[in-house]
Design brief:
The protein has 195 residues and is α+β, with helices and mostly antiparallel strands. The chain has a single domain (8-109, 154-192), classed as Electron Transport, Fmn-binding Protein, Chain A (Pnp Oxidase, Chain A). It contains 5 helices and 9 strands. The protein has helices spanning 8-20, 65-72, 100-109, 112-120, 130-143, and strands at residues 29-35, 41-47, 50-52, 55-61, 75-82, 87-97, 155-169, 177-184, 187-192. Strands 1, 2, 3, 4, 5, 6, 7, 8 and 9 form a 9-stranded antiparallel β-sheet that branches. A hairpin with a 2-residue loop joins strand 8 (177-184) and strand 9. The longest helix has 14 residues, at 130-143. It starts with 7 loop residues before the first helix and ends with a strand.
């Protein structure tokens, strides 16, 4: 008797493609939850920039609250809810900082103003007035005029390496369909759950 081979990454990619083909504004939007060293949870929306067999990637400033959390507690969860397809996926795992090469390549692909914004923002730090941020941005426009904008050392990506991936489909009368994959060595086990 052979054991079934499960691939939740391939399943996610099918669902993600389906969501992209609908009227949904941004299917890459996901809620990412972290926890402080004291165990205080925080959740915020970010954009997934890559998803493959290694995990899912988002980018941020290392001085942000989420990056500080992840440097102290390397576990995170992400949740996608695609209203147009009535489906949800939750991913939980440890995070790793992406390689310099990956971060450089993604940063180079961003619009120039987004690159400058990564330099201008003192993310999560108090700001006296919005004009302070705007002035920093203008100064950086002048500084890098006619030049390639380098990636700041304090800006990079995190990869959530999945340990659990849960899939959920909304059905009438709360008779939803729900199943979860757990990493098991080099493979995955699949378990059906009550909704």
């Amino acid at each position: 008797m052979t054991q079934a081979t499960y691939d939740p990454i391939a399943e996610f990619q099918v669902w993600f493609k389906e969501a992209k083909e609908t009227s949904l504004k941004d299917p890459t939007a996901m809620a990412v939850a972290t926890s402080s060293p004291e165990g205080i949870p925080a959740v915020r929306m970010v954009l997934m920039k890559q998803f493959d067999q290694q995990g899912l990637v988002f980018y941020t400033n290392f001085t942000s609250a989420k990056a500080r959390d992840l440097q102290q507690n390397s576990w995170a969860s992400a949740c996608f809810f695609w209203e147009t397809t009535r489906k949800q996926v939750r991913v939980t795992g440890r995070v790793q900082v992406v390689s310099r090469e990956e971060a450089d390549a993604y940063f180079a692909s961003r619009p120039r103003d987004s690159q400058l914004g990564a330099w201008a923002s003192l993310q999560s730090q108090p700001m006296a007035a919005r004009t302070d941020f705007e002035e920093r941005f203008k100064q950086l426009q002048s500084l890098y005029e006619g030049q390639v904008v380098p990636r700041p050392e304090h800006w990079s990506g995190f990869r959530i390496v999945p340990e659990k991936i849960e899939f959920w489909i909304e059905l009438p009368y709360r008779l939803h369909e729900r199943w979860i994959y757990h990493r098991d060595g080099q493979g995955w086990t699949k378990t059906l759950l009550y909704p």
